[in-house]
Amino acid sequence: MLKRTPSKPPRPDPEERILAAAIELFAAEGYASIAVPEVAARAGVGLGTLYQRFPSKEALGNAVFRRCKRAWAAATLDIWPEGQAPERQFRLYWERLCAFAEKHRDMALYNERNPIGHAYDAESLALREELDRRSEAVLRAWVKAGAVADLPFEVMAGLIHGSFQRILELSIPARQRRKLMDETGRAVWRALAKAD
């Protein structure tokens, strides 16, 4: 009787390994600080394999940008609770943002640090503009409903995401981070609602 050896799980596609390695490295060190050979080494692929899929560091940077932004949008904006009161929408958004960060910490760090050190290609630029437009529409709807102060989009986004980023970057246990995120979410809403 032949002995069956347990089968190994299939290794992820090289492109997926490259993107995962680049996300991790760019989130930790920033795009400008990372050399392409570092990404290839972390992904366990040769430079030729990397360059077959991403012909330049800029192409890789744009692919990382799109991957991270689309994942964030799928976890937060794409499932928007239309018809809910603004405060409820904010609380759901904040909860989803925190859940996304727990599941995809490197992507969340990359998104929050915005470590773009390259030009956006046409696809990335269109995605950035679309996500900014959708985000601003949500914030403007809250203003129109009288739930938050009429502040510039950049200020409101900074209150939300600047606070989120600061807690996300802390080197603390996950349980403590969750508690701080809950407290921060409540404080951010109060700031938005009471700002003059």
Radius of gyration: 20 Å
Mean pLDDT: 92
Q: What's the β-strand tally?
A: 0
Taking the alpha carbons of the first and last residues, their distance comes to: 79 Å
Which class of secondary structure composition applies to the elements?
A: mainly alpha
The number of helical elements comes to 9
Give the low-pLDDT segments.
none
Largest sheet, if any? none
Helix content: over 70%
Please report which band the strand proportion falls in: under 5%, 5-15%, 15-25%, 25-35%, 35-45% or over 45%: under 5%
SSE pattern: HHHHHHHHH
> In one word, what is the shape?
globular
Structure explained in plain terms:
The protein is an all-alpha fold. 70% of the residues lie in helices and 0% in strands. The chain has helices at 14-29, 36-43, 47-53, 57-75, 86-103, 105-113, 122-144, 153-169, 174-194. The longest helix has 23 residues, at 122-144. The protein is globular, with a radius of gyration of 20 Å. The termini are far apart.
